[in-house]
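Entry for the shared binder. Reason: the reviewer on the internal report wants the predicted structure included alongside the sequence.
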Amino acid sequence: MDDMPSRIPHFLPALRAGARRAGFSLSCEERTGNLLALLAATRPAGRILELGTGVGEGTAWLLSGMDSASA
């Protein structure tokens, strides 16, 4: 079974480049990010709070799963 995401948020490469420049190596893996997107997608028009500790990769994944009515 291949559980790697078939698509990634479009701004993820720029965030990863910024993380490398900053020496930050603890961003979420693609499988974890895909789970975040899936969980966000289960809450149509949901309200999601993300208290990040990195460069925004987790937030990017969450945003990719949210619909336009989410906040």
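Summary line for the report: The longest helix spans residues 30-41.
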